[in-house]
Design brief:
The protein has about 800 residues and is mainly beta. The protein has a domain of about 500 residues: TonB-dependent receptor, beta-barrel domain (Maltoporin, Chain A, Beta Barrel), CATH 2.40.170.20. Helix content is about 5%, strand content about 65%. It is built from four helices and 41 strands. The strands form five sheets. It has a 26-stranded mixed β-sheet that branches. The protein has a six-stranded mixed β-sheet with strand order 8-9-14-15-12-13, with no helix packed on it. The two termini are about 50 Å apart. Keywords: Cell outer membrane, Membrane, Signal. It is found in: Cell outer membrane. This is Outer membrane beta-barrel protein. Its main location: membrane.
């Protein structure tokens, strides 16, 4: 409640600030336009910095004509940063305001397309940590202290509207299915386990993270939202890079290095990272089983310890073939190793809650995975008015091997025989993606036309060998009932067209994407499944309007799909816990979601406030469904559980009371209502709550501080994951002209992260509690090879000011 109270006080400050009227003193003004065609860029993010400050003094957006204006500035030296999605950022240095010369008109500031012009230097001056657009929220990784020396998983925990569970799975608030993209391409085609990739992907290789709740037609129709991780391209002058190391009290370590060299018309960049992590945790669960003639109970107590290590290696080459042609090639190799040990105690209690049986189980696990990705993108400027053709290809292969053993004995009664089981699961995955995109300004470059097509192929082989130990012959024998091979093939052919109209402060964008899906899979048992090929259409419409130089309104509508894939279709039985088995459902159908978003943004010199309302309705929702058999065994599988209607209110904003202090926060309340013909226990509704509050402050002697607190409480089809809180704090100091930086950070300093969940079915209720070793203190050192250079922009003589 303290967190929620703080959030409401924060938004109250924003509203109070909105009513304040500034008196004009020092003024910086200008206009943001496209380098090719001089078309005005509305909604560009313009930040002004005082001196060498890392945090912006004020951040605003350009109006519908690309015009911006900062007022109430004291005499000082300033620098300006202009950024917009899809364009290279621009920095204007040494803007001097005096008592006599207090009105600086910078004239036209030209932004160039960041993909079509390799000669444009990428500016590394500080950006605002969070940028808000009509249909995307951008988290600039380089502006976060806590991001230094961390990984993609750590960063995602502090991104607005994003929630990361205990297993490292990231989702967007209010969305059941979220996809993670790397540089605009699906990462789930690149690895058999996305969390493995994110756990070792170093933050120093990441430029920004984009949160898309209603992705445009250019992106795949899969998933209700997209997290797009944009990697650094390394377009910097000369040779430069950095090396860093992080060590924590829990025994976790992280080392990373990256470097880039830029010649006259090419750029070579690479990075390497290695991470070691130790995990500890314990959990307990209590299940009550209801049957007509009896009631009995299962209580379970678990403890676990794991150790994992992995590396990530990236290499990229960018070539500006001609002024109109460019080629970008990148490769990624990822490797992970893990071993684990856990113990479980299972208590069987009768209806008088007297223990009649106690089973002890010891589990050992040893796993490794690796994946390789090759990506190439070719860009061609087709004409002088900005037409661009892009062709890309991505090929990947990965393998995963997981060996586990389960040793079960009985403390009482003693006449029950022990058992020893070994599961060897080998997974391989191959994929090929091809995309062809074309966009062109039309009608005197006022509007934008986009066309494209894509082909995606994916193959997955899952080989599970289950063996039971025979104590008489002292050898392992294959368990034919559980051993199986699963083969999955998927082909998706898609095409899209969209049109973007900008007129008098209004922006209209409409698009249609079509996807033709062909899926087949079979088992070594002889069962074959061939899903009838189906065509899906995904319309996408958005409207936004910027008015009175401080307000922005946006509305979007789209249709999305959640396709069942191998992890939900595979009927192989997992009986690692013989009282709680799980398996997939090969009869699943795709689920379609219609979703609408309405957003309103209000911006001031020191604050911004962007409330959003989202509504979605989904049919054939795919979620995990649990049932208890008369023998007391819980069986968990996936099903099209029914229909879900969801409405969400999201409040997002930031407040900067001074040039050295910045706060940002977001609060979401989501009403979900499930209805199902599958089971009456699935007819339920309830609220989900999520909140986050961040604070950063610049201190004397080149020192900075940052903190985050996050809270989540979510409902699902069969229950609720109750409230959990996690927090992080960090401080950084720089030395030697910003070439060396030291950081100390702590996560969950007030106690380990706890998780509490409740589930209910027609004949059972279950309550689970778990904790892990999330409390940690870590120390990081980072050294930059060379001083970063930025563009020099000469301030032109001020043209006549139009009133």
């Amino acid at each position: 409640m303290k967190i929620l109270t703080s959030l409401f006080l924060f938004f109250a400050c924003c509203i109070a600030a909105f009513g304040a009227k500034a008196t004009e003193k020092g003024v910086i003004r200008g206009k943001v336009i496209e380098e090719v065609g001089a078309l005005p860029i509305p909604f560009a993010v313009v930040a002004v910095f005082e001196g060498a400050a890392e945090q912006p003094l004020s951040t605003i957006q350009s109006d519908e004509n690309g015009v911006f204006k900062f007022v109430n500035l004291k005499p000082a030296t300033y620098r300006l940063r202009v950024s917009y999605v899809g364009f290279a950022s621009l920095v204007v240095n040494d803007i001097i305001i005096t008592e006599k010369d207090f009105d600086k008109n910078l004239g036209n500031l030209k932004l160039s397309n960041e993909q079509s012009n390799l000669n444009e230097v990428v500016i590394t001056a500080p950006k605002p940590l969070i940028e808000f657009g009509a249909d995307v929220i951008t988290y600039n990784v380089g502006s976060s202290i806590l991001a230094e020396g961390s990984t993609a998983t750590d960063i995602l925990k502090n991104v607005p509207m994003v929630q990361v569970d205990i297993d490292g799975n990231a989702t967007i608030a209010g969305k059941r299915s979220t996809r993670v993209f790397i540089d605009g391409k699906p990462s789930d085609y690149m690895t058999s386990n996305i969390t493995d990739l994110l756990n070792v992907l170093p933050s120093d290789a990441i430029e920004k993270i984009e949160v898309m709740t209603n992705p445009p037609s250019k992106y795949s129709g899969d998933g209700e939202g997209i997290l797009n991780i944009v990697m650094k391209k390394g377009f910097k002058v000369g040779f430069n890079g950095n090396i860093g190391i992080t060590a924590g009290l829990q025994g976790n370590t992280n080392t990373n290095a990256n470097a880039s060299y830029r010649g006259k018309n090419y750029n070579l960049n690479g990075s390497a990272a290695y991470r070691q992590n130790i995990g500890k945790g314990n959990s307990e669960s209590y299940r009550t089983n209801f049957f007509p003639d009896t009631t009995f109970y299962y209580n379970q107590f678990n403890n676990n310890r794991s150790k994992s290590d992995g590396g990530n290696f990236r290499l990229g080459f960018d070539w500006d073939i001609t002024p109109k042609q460019s080629l970008r090639i990148s490769t990624n190799y990822n490797i992970n190793n893990s071993n684990s040990r856990s113990g479980n105690d299972f208590y069987y209690l009768n209806e008088d809650q007297i223990a009649t049986r106690l089973r002890n189980q010891q589990n050992l696990g040893d796993g490794n995975s690796n994946n390789f990705v090759f990506n190439a993108d070719y860009n061609l400027q087709t004409d002088t008015v900005g037409g661009k053709l892009t062709m890309g290809i991505t090929a990947n292969t990965n393998a995963n091997n997981d060996l586990r053993s389960y040793n079960r004995t009985y403390a009482f009664p003693t006449n029950l025989n022990p058992s020893l089981q070994q599961n060897d699961n080998e997974i391989s995955n191959q994929g090929l993606n091809f995309n062809l995109d074309y966009d062109k300004p039309v009608f005197k470059k006022r509007d934008q036309l986009e066309l494209g097509m894509a082909f995606n192929y994916r193959k997955n082989d899952n080989d599970l060998l289950v063996q039971n130990f025979n104590y008489q012959t002292e050898q392992y024998l294959t368990n034919k009932a559980l051993t199986n091979k699963f083969f999955y093939n998927e082909h998706i052919l898609s095409g899209y067209a969209s049109y973007n109209l900008r007129l008098n402060g209004w922006g209209f964008k409409g698009g249609l994407r079509a996807e033709y899906t062909d899926v087949n899979f079979d088992l070594s048992t002889g069962a074959n499944y061939h899903v009838n090929p189906y065509l899906s259409l995904f319309p996408n419409v958005s409207i936004n309007h910027y008015f009175k130089k401080r307000f922005n309104f946006g509305a979007t509508y789209s249709v999305r799909i959640n396709r069942p894939r191998e992890n939900t279709l595979n009927p192989q039985v997992n009986n690692a816990d013989t009282l709680n088995i799980s398996y997939g459902n090969p009869d699943l159908s795709p689920a379609y979601t219609h979703q609408m978003d309405f957003s309103f943004g209000a911006f001031g010199q020191k604050w911004s406030f962007t409330p959003r309302i989202s509504y979605s309705t989904a049919r054939g929702v795919i979620e995990r469904y649990r049932m208890v058999k008369p023998n007391g065994v819980s069986e968990s599988t996936f099903d099209n559980v029914g229909t879900n209607h969801s409405i969400a209110l999201m409040l997002i904003g930031n407040f900067r009371p001074t040039s050295k202090i910045s706060t940002n926060g977001n609060f979401s309340v989501i009403q979900s209502r499930y209805s199902s013909k599958l089971n009456s226990s699935l007819n339920r509704d309830g609220l989900s709550l999520r909140a986050s509050l961040g604070f950063s402050m610049q201190l004397p002697f080149k020192t900075a501080f940052e903190s985050y607190v996050n809270y989540a409480n979510n409902i699902n089809a069969q229950g609720r994951n109750k409230g959990s809180i996690n927090s992080s704090f960090g401080a950084r100091k720089t030395f030697f002209k910003n070439t060396l930086s030291a950081r100390i950070s702590t996560s969950d300093p007030f106690g380990r992260r706890n998780n509490n969940s409740f589930n209910q079915g027609t004949n059972f209720t279950s309550q689970s509690y778990s904790t892990n070793n999330s409390s940690n203190v870590s120390f990081s050192l980072n050294y930059r090879f060379t001083k970063v250079k930025v563009n020099k922009v000469t301030i032109p003589p001020p043209p006549p000011v139009k009133q």
